Amino acid sequence: MTKERDLTFDVARALCILEIVCLWHMTDFIDMSLLPEQSLSIFGYVTIVVLGTFSFISGFFLKKYKIVNGSDVGKFFLVRIKRFWILYFIASLLLYVASSCVGQPWYPSISNFVLSLIGLSVFFQPLPATLWFMVMMMFFYLITPLILAFRRKEMRVMVAATIFVVLVALGFRGWVDERVLCYYPMYALGMLLDVRIVDFIKRKALLALLGSGVGLAVIYLLLYGSSVYSLLVCVAGLIAVIGLSELMAKNAVVGKVGSFVSYSSLSMYFFHRHFYLAIVYLWNIGGVGNIREATFPLWFAYLVVCPIIIFGCYTIQRVYDKITLNIIHQKDMIDRSEHQLNSYSII
Question: What is the pTM of this model?
Fold first, then answer.
């Protein structure tokens, strides 16, 4: 891994976070009657692809770590804590406190809140709304050293497959959230897939985009509702996202905008609900009791709310980076440039 930015993945992250924040979750705060009847179904289809892509990217960038001894494991988790956990804790605590104050708790109990902070509510459900993806990713991080501890690729594949079999068995008993069974293979694929295959998709970006589009249509028509539907959608969709992002990244302006939004993506995921709820409340002063049902016009949503979230979360991320670089900096941790370039691959 080099310290040079990979604009393709920057654009991919940007596209994915914008779909989640400014499209999928925006449906909670706008009048959906203004959109076509099939909008939610289409948005849901796209969101499966987006979350699968986020999972893959996270695994893809984490495979650079070498796990040889206990010290490496400790370093791996220390970096993870520095990268995201503090922000995640702040975002979770704010949601827990604020939602409890208005009588609509984000977490059903304090124990669920605590388990969600360490990634174990995938087994002790329910998972929290919105932040469930981060809970799931934390669980993936917990088992990542088990896979990376083996140097031979064949052994890594075997360990990753064994973990999946165990998760499927637990899923049949209802002991693990079913979404884990869809996105864990994508995360593992990111760790195990040869970089040359990703490079090949980039080189054949237009062909990959067209082929994956056909594949998605076939999967939808023939396998909709089957047990492997979501996973196949994720794989085909991932190829489409990489191909599209590679083509878009060739434009200098798109590359710069993609890098900006990509840098903000971690904080956008953590704090977009906070911005939404605050803006909805201000838009409907006095409507605290019905804050989740309150809506605002489309023009306001996309000309005011989305820019506020993007620039607000960019500011949060910049401030957080300056604090961690100045206070928690250690020689054996990733240097400043890599911290800023490739650290926000977890979503």
Answer: 0.89
| 8 A C-beta contact, residue 295 and residue 283 | no
CB atoms under 10 Å from CB of 125, counted, come to: 14
Q: What are the distances in angstroms from CA 145 to CA 72, 100, 295?
A: 9, 36, 44
Cβ pair 328, 82 in contact under 8 A: yes
Distances from the Cα of 19 to the Cαs of 46, 221, 223, 343, in angstroms? 8, 23, 24, 20
Q: What confidence tens digit (pLDDT) does each residue in 65-74 have? A: 999 998 999 9
Place of tokens 């959109």: 35
Per DSSP, the residues of 9-70 read: HHHHHHHHHHHIIIIIGGGGSS-GGGS-TTHHHHHHHHHHHHHHHHHHHHHHHHTT----SH
pLDDT of 129-183, one tens digit each? Answer: 889 999 999 999 999 999 999 989 999 999 999 999 999 999 998 899 989 999 9
- CA dihedral 306→307→308→313, nearest 10 degrees, is 90
CA distances from 84 to 91, 106, 162, 276 (A): 11, 20, 28, 21
State how far the Cα of 123 lies from the Cα of 139, in Å rounded to an integer: 10
Residues with Cβ within 8 Å of residue 253, at least 6 apart in sequence: none
What are 192's two structure tokens?
Answer: 């195990």
For tokens 């604020």, name the residue: 98
What is the spatial distance between Cα 186 and Cα 192, in angstroms, rounded to a whole number? Answer: 10
Q: Which two tokens stand for residue 215?
A: 């594949």
Report whether the peptide linkage leading into residue 108 is cis, meaning its omega lies within 30 degrees of zero: no
337 pLDDT tier (thresholds 50, 70, 90): very low
260 contact partners, CB below 8 Å, separation of at least 6: 14, 314
